[in-house]
Amino acid sequence: MDFGIFTFGELTRGASGTSRSAAQRIDETIRLAKAADQAGLDIIGLGEHHRHDFAFSAPEIVLAAIARETERIRLTTAVTVLSTQDPARVFEQFATLDIISGGRAEIIAGRGVFPESFPLFGYDPANYDALFEDKFELLLQMREQADVTWPTPGSANGRQRGHHALQDAAIAPRPVQDRLPIWRGVGGTPSSFVRAGQAGVPLFLALLSGPQHFARHVELYRAAAAQAGHAASSLRVGTGSHLYVARTSQEARDTFYPHYAAYIEQNMPRPADGFPREQFDAWAGPGGGLLVGSPAQITERILATHEMLGTDRFMAQVGLGTLPFAETSASVELFATEVVPAVRKALGQ
What we know:
This protein is an alpha/beta fold. The protein is 43% helix and 16% strand. The protein is globular, with a radius of gyration of 20 Å. The relative contact order is 0.14. Residues 1-310 form the Luciferase-like domain.
């Protein structure tokens, strides 16, 4: 099992109505990645959004900056919004990142949560599903072939809604790694799990609710992969959760609540009275998807998810809301130095 952190670079407004600048958030993220690398975490991910309240519209550029400041940590997106990107450009960018980093690049490709990239890049949201499926298939083909013809001769996929036709198109440069790791980021739709299994690619799942809600979905993923003839050894399941760690559970909840409430109220529709503390405590309690507590509590929750879903990776979404950088750094340090070693010990790693 490997462990990491990811962030969307939120620019959540505080009580005064102001927020961090994109420049400040990007600088903090590079410093956080360097600290995570030194603390022994395995991976850092950056999410792609095209809104004024997020800092990363071009995460691969920030990842390239991180590559020059780190030595071993792997670099991924969380996620690349493939529906509104050109797969050739995505592959070329991450192949270049792989070269810059000495073979540490990965891609988590997904549909994305917010729709703003569709009008921005001239796509019809009505083609939401077909765009992603076509482009994901093409991205995988580009990983395997340096010269690509699309659609593949004889392929049932002749829709071309995701990409124009290609004939022996050069996809360059090629990455350092023999096969650039490409994960599929999924939400809660069972068909997405099935398609990931049919493609035989690793699966990354954001646990915004408890893992018990997704056990059947992960079973569908593995069953679809087996039916398609993919070896079980090629299948990996990663999960991500909102996380804040402090020395005690009470300290963690009291510190994190107002900052997390600001994030929820800005990004998710809430009642007029905002995001109440009792709702926060319920989400952070047993069966919830929010990981807020002491190192021992977080360790127990990660192990429970691993036992339920058979996970190979856990990534903590950090820096949420208006939480100051110092508190985010302290939380990541506790995660890296106390939670991760405890989980690894329990798993016999």
